[in-house]
Structures are given as structure tokens and as C-alpha cells.
Amino acid sequence: MSGHGTPIPMTSHRADPLKGVAEVPGDKSISHRSLILGALSVGETKISGLLEGEDVLDTAKAMQAFGAEVVNHGGGNWSVFGVGVGGFAEPGNVIDCGNSGTGVRLIMGVMATSPITATFTGDASLNKRPMARVTDPLALFGTQSVGRSGGRLPMTIVGAADPVPVRYEVPVPSAQVKSAVLFAGLNAPGKTVVIEKEATRDHTERMLAGFGAEITTEDTEEGRVITLTGRPELKPQVIAVPRDPSSAAFPVCAALITPGSDVLVPNIGLNPTRAGLYYTLQDMGADLTFENMREEGGEPVADLRAKYSPDMKGIEVPPARAASMIDEYPVLSVVASFAEGKTMMAGVKELRVKESDRIDAMAKGLRANGVTVEEGEDWWEVTGLGIDGVPGGGICESVLDHRIAMSFMVMGMGAQNAVSVDDGGPIATSFPIFESLMGNLGAKLERT
Ligand SMILES: O=C(O)C1=C[C@@H](OP(=O)(O)O)[C@@H](O)[C@H](O)C1
Ligand SMILES: C=C(OP(=O)(O)O)C(=O)O
């Protein structure tokens, strides 16, 4: 429940060479889905490596509110005793999803085709984010919703008592929308079809198949066509959550811009729908290698090795790559500030409706640190100052957005002067061990 506490101002001073092994926490997307799919199975799902960030903990509480039993055994090991597809009970109170778009949108989808009513809310950031992108397709199943104007939370969802299956083409590249429709389709009879023009992260599809649902994915001229057969009996699973490539981005990018660094970030999933940042960094000339490439649980996994990279060049990031690195643009813009020449990031309108308007938040903070940024509705361009050229010295607003706060902490590690954020509190939503992990590598972070 980020944003409910006292702000935690933080400052990042120019770092010593970053050295060592960075064991980042579990994947946030997979952690949410493990709890939700566990709650939809009959029996005990055992999860290890669950991300214990606030976003995921809010989803765990929500699953309990809908009737599942969720047990924390400690050390990232959890059990979920599920109630089965269509087995959700009506919650006795409002569901607070804190800062988490993924949590609220996926859970709305799951309950939308059961004859129950639930009211959802979140923090000041989540309550500004658009929900019509989810409630529009849910209405096709027969679900009703009433929220604040503009389709904002708090919002009440009245689940369809007699849902019909749906064929839906997702109008924005969003795995959350795709997943909400697929989860709603679980309790509708017949086949629900979701079509996406651009492939987004595919954890829902992979995990539904793993839990025993009948689901197929076909790449066609219309786009990616996903077909789910409703009313399956989901079988509980044993899940080892892989480490989060979006969290790995922070120690990797910090190493690239901090003189003398050499950091190993082991066991990172390189699912092609998530790995775009790493190919972009290589295109910029980063000294970043994938060691020990292997396959685990059907997903490509590698140890990332990042070394100080004084000769990076600005590039045009291919817009077709946007969905596979959507959460990584803030920290990429920091690396771009330390490269020679301009980095153009286009086709990224979605950045404006995340925990914050991320183009606006980063542009303001980069400018406060002496970096030139130009922007339009769906693009922005950073003019790099070279590896030793970023003045720093700025105080940046994190606007309830964990990725903005962490990006500016990374910037301070390589800039000439310290970089501050007004509130590092949101970091706990996705990367609760960020300060200690970066500190152990040699970063100088301070609560100010
Ligand atoms: O499905 C998911 O787990 C997520 C999907 C993405 O959001 P959108 O679906 O809004 O693109 C991403 O930004 C978010 O961090 C996690
Ligand atoms: C966009 C993000 O998360 P969510 O949409 O779940 O709030 C994120 O973690 O960068």
C-alpha cells in the first residue's frame, strides 16, 4: 500500500566501483499470477521465490478476501489453497490493491464472471489510472461496473451471473488487459479468444497451460490469437518464481555507468516478451553479456554480466521492441544520458498511464540533472552527455512511482554530483531489498 506512509527522501552519491553478485527478487508479474492461479485451483499450490513487495502482498490479501487460504512459510515460500474456477466468495470489504495496476486489473478479470460484487480501490497513483480498458471488454461477458468519472477507481464490479464467452481484439499493447480477459474467460462456457496486434508478456498464457487449462496461441496476419476453453479444472502446481528482469535492470544499468564496475546478476529470465532492454543496451555498445544461457521451466534464463561501459552511443530504440521493455524506459533514459549522442524512444504512449506519466516524470528529473530531453505524446529523446558529462545535483519527484525513484538513484551513482528523490518509499512495491542490494555492490545511498 505505497503512498500511505511518510515520504522517505533519498540521495545517491557517486558510487565506488560496483562489484559482486546481485541476487534480485522474484518476478513481479509471475508472482501476482502464481497467487491468482493458485487461488483458482483446487488444492495446494506451493510457491518459492515469491516477490514479497507491497504490490504482490496486496494481491495475496485480495486472494484471501475472495476465499482462498494463503500461507506465508517465510523466506519467499508460500502456499495457496485455492477454491477452484468460479469458486470465489464475495469479499466482506473493499479490496485495496495499493499501487498495483497488475493486481487490480487481473483480479477484476478473475471475479468478473462469478455472481459476486466487489469494490476496488488503490493509492493516489492507482486511483488515477484508466480502468475502462479492462471494464470495456469485461462488459462483453455481461459484467457491470461503476467507478469514478473517466473509469477510475474506486470502482465496483458486479460479476456476470450467466457469462458468455468473448472474442476481443486488445486495442492497446497491454498484458494486463489481455490477462483480465483470459481470466474472465476461465469461468465462461465455450471458447474465449483474445487477439493482440503486438505481442506482450505471455506469462498468463504459459501459466494457464501449466495449471492445466486448454489454451492455444497462434501467430496470424491479424496478430497473436489466443484461444482459451472455459471452465477447466485447474490443477495446483509447484512454482519456482524466476528472478525479475525488470528489477535486474537497475544493478545492470548502474554497473554500465559507474567507473570500474563489474556486476553479475544471476538467474534472470530472458523470455523474449520481457528482454528488450538487454538487446537495446547491447545495441548501444554496453559491455553486457549473457553467461550460462540455459532453459528453466520452458523459459530462457541467463546470468547477466555488466561492466563499466564508457563508450556507449545513443540509438533509435526500435518501436517494435517497446512492449518487451515497457517498464525499463525510465532506467534506459538514465543510461542514454551517459551515452554519446541522442537516444530516441518512440511508440511509447503507454508510458503516460503507468504509476505516473513516466515520460513527464523522467523528463523533469533528467532536466533537473542537466540533461536535455525533448518529448511528444508518444515519444521522447534524450541527448546524451557522455560517460563523464552528467552534472547531476538534481532533486527529483518520484510521483509514487518505484521505477522513477530507482532510476534516479542509479543516475546518482555515475553523475558528477549527488542525485536525490523526494520519496523512495514506492521502491518497496517491487524491489524491497533495493537499498541493501545496491549498497552491498558499492552504491552510496542515503535516507536524507
Ligand atoms: O501484466 C503484467 O504483469 C504487466 C504488464 C505491463 O502493464 P500493461 O499491461 O499496462 O502494459 C507492465 O507495465 C506491468 O509492470 C506488468
Ligand atoms: C507498470 C508497473 O506495474 P503495475 O502496472 O502493475 O502497477 C511497473 O511495475 O512498472
UniProtKB/TrEMBL annotation:
Reactions it catalyzes: 3-phosphoshikimate + phosphoenolpyruvate = 5-O-(1-carboxyvinyl)-3-phosphoshikimate + phosphate
Any single biological process term in GO: amino acid biosynthetic process
The entry's keywords: Amino-acid biosynthesis, Aromatic amino acid biosynthesis, Cytoplasm, Transferase
Annotated Pfam families: EPSP_synthase
Methyltransferase is among the record's keywords: no
Catalytic center residues: D327 (proton acceptor)
Self-association and partners: Monomer.
Name this protein carries in UniProt: 3-phosphoshikimate 1-carboxyvinyltransferase
Source organism of this protein record: Leisingera methylohalidivorans DSM 14336
